[in-house]
Amino acid sequence: LRRLSRISRREQAEALAAALADTLWAAGGGRRAVICLVTTALHLLPSRDYKADNFTERIQLFEFCEKGAAQEFISDHINSFRAEGSHGVILFLYSLLFSRTLER
């Protein structure tokens, strides 16, 4: 426990990025990882079958064919997953679904 309390914020961020990348890579069958981030631009327009929630329509997908590139991207955007009010768990769930594919 004492050793854990000495881990820096940077080391925590690196460990989180590695764990997220490992999980997404495994979900993608070791071939790909899809990472979802929220942007300011709309990527989905409301329709008869979809009611806007001001979140889902702002999600942008980033696909990676190399695990290291996915981990680096997550590291660069780690606050999207861990900052207060970031919806990190929802973004990670979407990322898992898209990495695994909806068909699987």
UniProtKB/TrEMBL annotation:
What InterPro entries is this protein classified in? MINDY-3/4_CD (IPR025257), MINY3/4 (IPR039785)
* Residue ranges constituting the Deubiquitinating enzyme MINDY-3/4 conserved domain according to the UniProt record: 4-103
Enzyme class (EC, first level): hydrolase
GO MF annotations, alphabetized: cysteine-type deubiquitinase activity; K48-linked deubiquitinase activity
Q: What is its EC number?
A: 3.4.19.12
Keyword Methyltransferase on entry:
no
Query: What does the UniProt keyword field contain?
Result: Hydrolase, Protease, Thiol protease, Ubl conjugation pathway
Describe the reaction catalysed, as an equation. Answer: Thiol-dependent hydrolysis of ester, thioester, amide, peptide and isopeptide bonds formed by the C-terminal Gly of ubiquitin (a 76-residue protein attached to proteins as an intracellular targeting signal)
Q: Does the keyword Plastid apply?
A: no
Q: Which GO terms describe its biological process?
A: protein K48-linked deubiquitination; proteolysis
Highest taxon of source: Eukaryota
Q: Which Pfam families match?
A: MINDY-3_4_CD
What protein family is recorded? Answer: Belongs to the MINDY deubiquitinase family. FAM188 subfamily.
Q: What does this protein do?
A: Hydrolase that can remove 'Lys-48'-linked conjugated ubiquitin from proteins.
- PANTHER family to which the protein is assigned, alphabetical: INACTIVE UBIQUITIN CARBOXYL-TERMINAL HYDROLASE MINDY-4B, UBIQUITIN CARBOXYL-TERMINAL HYDROLASE MINDY-4-RELATED
Which protein, by its recorded name, is this?
Ubiquitin carboxyl-terminal hydrolase MINDY
Q: Which organism is it from?
A: Ceuthmochares aereus
